[in-house]
Structure formats: structure tokens, C-alpha cells
Amino acid sequence: MTRKSCLRPFVLLSLLALAGCASQIPPPAPPAIPAPAPPELFFSQSGTASFYGAAHEGKTTASGEKFDPNAFTAAHPTLAFGTVVRVTNLSNGKMVKVAINDRGPVTKGRIIDLSSAAARVLGMEDSGIAKVRLEAFQADQQAAEN
Q: CB–CB of 76/99 below 8 Å?
């Protein structure tokens, strides 16, 4: 037997052994679950917020409600009463949701007056004002209606 003829069975057996060790094709991945749609933003504004508190307690707001400094409410010049707004303090990232129930602010250059409770959550009670971003989302309005 020649050397070539001796190697052929060895090579053939080696290839068969390697083929048996080859990994199988993995099964197809399950279909991807689509990401939820981002919330529908219908209002956004940035500027300076201030707050009003105990001195106004019990006074009638522009919407007819009595002002409660412990409720999560706010005054805005144009948003409809009952609109739920997410207010984010841009210096610390803290966020609170408030319902618009009054008109204001009366101080020029401010975009919203918050209740004391909302100001406390945002960490702006000591300074009295903060740079904020207001955002109103359709989902927040629907949740408030239920």
C-alpha cells in the first residue's frame, strides 16, 4: 500500500468526525416584540417656575376650585383647566405632575406658578424659583379622566 492510499481513509474519517462535531444551525429567533409607541406630547414649554402657598389657601382659583397648597396644582396663562402637566426641574431632574386649575403667574417672565406641594417635590422651596420644562402628554389626560 502506498503512502497516499494509507492517508485517504484517515483523511476521510477525520472529515466525517469533524462534520459530526459541527454545530447545528440554531432555530430562528422568536419575532421581536415591537417597542411601545412613545407617549404623545401635545405641549412643551421651558422657562422659570415659581410657587404660591399658604397665603392663598382657601382662595377661589380661576377654575372655581378652592386653592389647596397641599394639592398638586398649578396656574398657567393658557392651558385648559384640568390639563395635567409634567413639570421637570432642570437643575436636579426631579419631576412632578400637576393639574392646571388657575391662571398665572402674575410675575413677568415666569411660565407657571406651582402649589407648595409641587414645589417641595421639585426641590425649589428654598429658592422660590426654578428653571423647568413643562410637558403635557395625551396619556396623562386620559389617566386623569378615569
A: no
Give the CATH architecture of domain 41-145.
Beta Barrel (2.40)
Over the stretch 6-58, which tens digit does the pLDDT of each residue have? 556 655 555 555 555 555 777 888 888 888 877 899 999 999 999 998 899 99
Give Rg (Cα) of the chain.
32
Residue 122 contacts residue 130 (beta carbons within 8 Å): yes
Q: Do residues 131 and 90 touch, judged by C-beta distance below 8 A?
A: yes
Q: Which residues contact 52 (CB under 8 A, 6 or more apart)?
A: 67, 69, 75, 104, 113, 114, 115, 116
Q: How far apart are CA 69 and CA 80, in angstroms?
A: 20
Residue keyed to cell 462535531 = 21
- What phi and psi values does residue 3 have, to the nearest 5 degrees? -65, -40
80, three cell numbers: 385648559
pTM summary value: 0.73
